[in-house]
DNA sequence: GCCCGCCTTGATGGTTCCTTGACGGGCACC
DNA sequence: GGTGCCCGTCAAGGAACCATCAAGGCGGGC
């Protein structure tokens, strides 16, 4: 199921959107201002953001800039302003699409689907990544080792998923911290060690001599 | 310069678009019907397609489907139809964006920029530099020699990467020091010798008679 | 309200890597 | 042949980084 973050300061509209989106199979989280939107984007890992311009605390463009600083997560902007430069500005800042209020629900749904599809397309994304005795099913968020299911915590999964999507490639430490914990955690390298150790204990035959979750000191981690 | 393929059967509109786009720095090729649009997309390698629905020969949705069969090239649909399902249908078929006529030129330009940026951002920069038995994969940060992986430290990698990005060219000592250690280290030439030696020990068959990591005394280093 | 799972944080010990120094060789020039 | 310069090599100390264990705190589920 795809997850969408709805950012809107009008409770009525936010609730209406949430109900409609849930009815169409989306998992919905909401935020009422820019600050909590940025937090939620980092903490909830949505697949797409619906962003209403004109929030109480931050300008909508600041929210876009704040997100684009660390993620390419698709953003669909929602606005009542029919004319003017803000549409162009939002797109140039890195928004992915723009819908004018009032809008037809099925149009918004189509644009969300398009945004998510685009963002996922470039990852050729076999939904199951195999590494030795490990099978990582990205779509179902499941991992098995020698055929037996392995239970992971949300953070462990997020870490492993990132490595799996770049299987065979070295993923830099900063990228792991940014994408798993959020942009404010780029220097919390201790987390990496703790979670790498936890994953190894669950996934490796000999956790102290890992063969699949490999550390490159000072650089990052590789799944192979 | 970015190249755009404009598909429109009205010569007047097509010409107006082409002039405007060229004025904003785009390289423009045009097609007046669906069949030639598909050919042009294959032959001209545009960065983005602007597609007017309602062509004489093929339905616009068929053009989208025809393109999506083999490429993920971004498509911006142009249409006069204000309402109805075709907007949703076009997006779901794989169009990347949708602009309704009449439209503001700067909006179309912004959407084109956004579409191109999106399509290029995730391009994983598949560049592998080969020098004799060495293969240097810049994206994966991996080096192999005769097919076997070679482990490098962060500083060694940074040094080698710089040389690999300028393979065959002499990289001045000062540039190496600046880009690997930072601007304050421009005169620490000793570092160069130590790390050049370490790299040779890992990469060369006979480290004391290097064939790939070449020193030009007083000038700099070359990878070949 | 309690319990449990998970995240965070600290402490410790081991490893890797960077920096720095010392020494010898080749080369040009005097 | 001596001198100076630059390069290559080796080695050691210390800093940065990693692995592991464990405990406290927080929140969600019951």
Overall description:
The structure is a homodimer of 224-residue chains. Chain A is built from 8 helices and 12 strands. The first copy, chain A, is an alpha/beta fold and 224 residues long. The two termini of chain A are 27 Å apart. Chain A has helices at 11-23, 34-44, 60-68, 86-93, 105-120, 154-165, 173-181, 189-203; strands at residues 3-7, 27-31, 48-52, 75-79, 97-100, 128-131, 134-137, 142-145, 148-150, 170-172, 213-216, 220-223. In chain A, strand 6 (128-131) and strand 7 (134-137) form a beta hairpin. Chain A has 2 domains: 3-120, 3-Layer(aba) Sandwich (Rossmann fold); 128-223, Winged helix-like DNA-binding domain superfamily/Winged helix DNA-binding domain (Arc Repressor Mutant, subunit A), CATH 1.10.10. Chain A is elongated, with a radius of gyration of 19 Å. In chain A, the strands form 3 sheets. Chain A has a 5-stranded parallel beta sheet, with helices on both faces. A 4-stranded antiparallel beta sheet of chain A has the order 6-7-8-9, with helices on one face. The mean pLDDT of chain A is 84. The structure holds a DNA duplex (30 and 30 nucleotides).
């Amino acid at each position: 199921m795809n997850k969408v973050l709805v950012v809107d300061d009008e409770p009525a509209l936010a609730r209406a959107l949430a109900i409609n989106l849930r009815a169409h199979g989306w998992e919905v989280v909401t935020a009422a201002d820019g600050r909590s939107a940025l937090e939620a984007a980092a903490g909830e890992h949505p697949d797409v953001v619906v962003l209403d311009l004109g929030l109480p605390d931050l300008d909508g463009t600041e929210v876009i800039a704040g997100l684009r600083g660390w993620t390419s997560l698709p953003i669909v902007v929602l606005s009542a302003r029919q004319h003017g430069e803000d549409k162009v500005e939002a797109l140039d800042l890195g928004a992915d699409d723009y819908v004018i209020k009032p809008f037809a629900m099925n149009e918004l749904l189509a644009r969300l689907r398009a945004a998510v599809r685009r963002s996922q397309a470039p990852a050729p994304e076999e939904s199951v990544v195999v590494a030795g005795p490990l099978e990582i099913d990205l779509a179902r968020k499941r991992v098995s080792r020698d055929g037996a299911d392995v239970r992971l915590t949300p953070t462990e999964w997020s870490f492993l998923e990132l490595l799996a999507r770049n299987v065979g490639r070295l993923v830099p430490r900063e990228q792991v911290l940014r994408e798993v914990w959020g942009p404010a955690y780029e220097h919390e390298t201790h987390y990496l060690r703790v979670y790498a150790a936890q994953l190894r204990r669950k996934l490796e035959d000999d956790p102290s001599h890992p063969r699949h979750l490999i550390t490159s000191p000072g650089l990052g981690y590789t799944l192979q």
